[in-house]
Write a structure and sequence with these properties.
Length: 393
């Protein structure tokens, strides 16, 4: 759930029985039980919670799944920011206007962003996940791959039970342990969730006052700025140096305007000192965006550029704005093996993309951008079939 490029899981699951069998799982549970008590969880809570824990092999299968195809930005956006989701978001924005405005006044997070996050995470509460959270976390904690992280999440989930916020049977969520309307991990819950309704408990499954207050509190505490947008779609001038659209070069909106960047409809950008970075998630032939501080905070919620852009665009649409002026190109998604080949060819040509792993992260895109510059191609760092063919040549 936390990755720079959204992936679609299409490959067959890997076998997991050799890595974690029942005897190993039971031995691990005894160690986890001791750790939980040592970290202050009531022994009665721990004993009751551990009594029915089961190894979930499906969780390990999902954790190990290696996707065959990368999903393009256009595919990602098209399946998440739909007309039906926009309309439903507008209905819910109106329905919960009083509560959302109260949350806005308290925490400084605008209502349409909270509704957009709600829509992206669980389709406005229509699907939370059905996995028993403690089973999932215990399974992942007993697996060697990310044991320390999930051990911590298991302890925090037990802390939530110990505080009486939810009962164990009702604590269900995603295979990785994310919970409730906006899919908080247990550590996020214990650190940022608040009792918005004032009834003495925090219920992120059933109480929208708690859900919206907790989500807004999280964003506010990590640095959300009221009165600012997430970013905006922009128009890039002819002859632009696309290597500047790497998401790392930050300058004021005014400075970008001085370089010829305009609003998507062709009008001048506002005369603003707000710091922005330029990104082109579908390459130079697709839409371009200036992204601000609030975009970076959405990225802390989920470290996927496509996810953060989808939240921002959905929020804009819910607030009454239209579709993008420039639509993403209709591209064929790269397979993981094709990305790996791209990385190998970049390395062989002296453009360091790191260890070939089939995931086009920052290092791969930087290497591709250097290759493009060396061949007088638009240096957008965008991995696609055209760039793979160029490298093969």
């Amino acid at each position: 759930m936390r990755r720079l490029i959204a992936l679609v899981v299409l490959a067959a699951p890997m076998s997991v029985t050799a890595s974690l069998d029942q005897p190993a799982f039971q031995a691990c549970l005894e160690d986890l039980r001791t750790q939980a008590v040592d970290q202050g969880i009531d022994r009665g809570t721990v004993d009751a919670a551990f009594a029915g824990l089961e190894l979930q092999e499906r969780v390990l299968e999902l954790d190990r799944s290696q996707p065959e195809f990368l999903q393009t930005f256009g595919q990602y956006l098209g399946t998440r920011v739909t007309d039906s989701r926009v309309e439903r978001g507008r209905e819910l924005l109106r329905e919960h206007a009083a509560l959302l405005e109260q949350i806005h006044a308290t925490y400084g997070v605008q209502p349409h962003y909270l509704v957009a996050l709600w829509g992206l995470e669980t389709n406005f509460g229509s699907y939370f996940g059905t996995m028993p959270v403690l089973d999932s976390l215990a399974t992942l904690a007993c697996d060697q791959r990310r044991s320390d992280y999930f051990t911590g999440e298991l302890v925090e989930a037990l802390r939530i039970l110990d505080a009486g916020h939810i009962d164990q049977d009702s604590m269900r969520g995603s295979w990785a342990g994310a919970m409730g309307h906006t899919q908080f991990m247990p550590s996020t819950f214990t650190r940022y969730a608040v009792d918005g309704s004032g009834n003495g408990r925090i219920d992120l499954w059933n109480d929208l006052e708690d859900v919206f207050a907790s989500s807004a509190n999280y964003l506010a505490r990590i640095g959300w700025r009221d009165g600012e947008r997430w970013g905006r779609e922009v128009r890039i001038p002819d002859g632009f140096d696309w290597s500047q659209a790497d998401g790392r070069e930050r300058r004021s909106v005014r400075a970008w305007a001085d370089k010829g960047v305009r609003a998507a409809d062709g009008t001048p950008l506002p005369d603003s000192d707000i710091e922005a970075a330029l990104i082109v998630p579908a390459g130079h032939q697709g839409p371009a965006f200036l992204v601000y501080n609030n975009f970076r905070q959405i990225m802390r919620w989920n470290t996927s550029t496509s996810y953060a852009l989808a939240v921002g665009h959905l929020a804009d649409r819910i607030a009454g704005m239209g579709t993008l002026h420039t639509q993403p190109p209709d591209e064929t998604a790269l397979r993981r093996e094709e990305v790996k080949e791209m990385q190998q060819r970049l390395n062989a040509l002296g453009f360091d993309s790191g260890r070939p792993d089939g995931i086009a992260g920052r290092m791969t895109r930087s290497a591709l951008r250097e290759f493009q510059l060396s061949r007088d191609l638009p240096a957008d760092g965008h991995p696609n079939q055209a760039m793979l063919q160029a490298l093969r040549r």
